[in-house]
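User: I'm preparing a small set of examples for a lab meeting where we compare how different chains pack in three dimensions. I only have the primary sequence for this one, and I'd like the structure in C-alpha cell form so I can line it up with the others. Please keep the answer compact; I'll paste it straight into my notes.
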Amino acid sequence: MTVSRSEYCVVACAEAWRENGEVLAATMAPVSSFGARLAKRTFSPDLLLTDGEAMLVDLDGATEGWLPYRRHLAMVTGGKRHVMMGASQIDRFGNQNISCIGDWERPARQLLGVRGAPVNTLNNPVSYWVPRHSARVFVERVDMVSGVGYDNAAAAGPSAARYHRIPRVVSNLGVFDFATPDRSMRLASLHPGVTVEQVRQATGFALTIPADVPCTREPTAAELRLIREVIDPKGRREREVPA
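Assistant: Understood. Below is the C-alpha cell output for the 243-residue chain.
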C-alpha cells in the first residue's frame, strides 16, 4: 500500500510522544494533532488530549474534563506537558522565532509574538512541526528568540537548562534532533523520496549529517487504517503536506 508523505509526517510526529506517560500533548497544527491522536491510540495510551481551549477530550473529541488556564499553566511549569509548536524560524541550536521577521525595533513583519514559548521551552519538552522546510525557516540565527534553544538555555545557567529539552523537529523532508556533542541540529531520518542534498539545500546552516541516514519509519497497516479511516477521514493531512 502506498504511503503518502503526509502520513510519514503524522507517524514522525506521533513518535515524539512515545513513552511520555501521562502528560498533556499540546499541538498547534493538523498533522501534529493527528500524530498525538495516533500515539494515544497505539503506543502512548496515557497521553492527555485537549480541544485547544479549556477542555480535556477523549479520542472521539468528547469532553473528559475541564482544564482552565491556571491549571494549564500549572501543568506547563510542572513539566507535565509536551507541546509540538510551529516555527517561523528555527536555528541550528533549536532557538525558535514566532515573534517578528527582521530587527525587533523595526521588524519587516510582525508575527504572533513570543506567546508561551519561553515558559514552554524552559519547563517541559517542546518539539517542533514545520510543514514547509526551507532556508527561510531553518536559519543560521533567528531574528528573535521566542522558544529557547540549547545554546541560550546553557548560557542562562543550570536553572534554565534543568528541564529544557527539544526531543525532535519534524518537517516535510525529515526528522531532526540534537543528539550531538554541542547540541546542534542533526538529521535523524529522511522521509522516503527525499535526499540528503535536498535537505542541505533547504537548510540555512550546516547540519550534522551521519554517514548513513535512515528512512523515517513506515506506518504499520493498523496505523494507516487509523490515520485514513478514524483520525483524519477527510484527508486534511494532504492539504498541509501535499503529495
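A couple of notes for your slides: The first helix runs from residue 5 to 14. The two ends are 15 Å apart (CA to CA).

User: Perfect, thanks.
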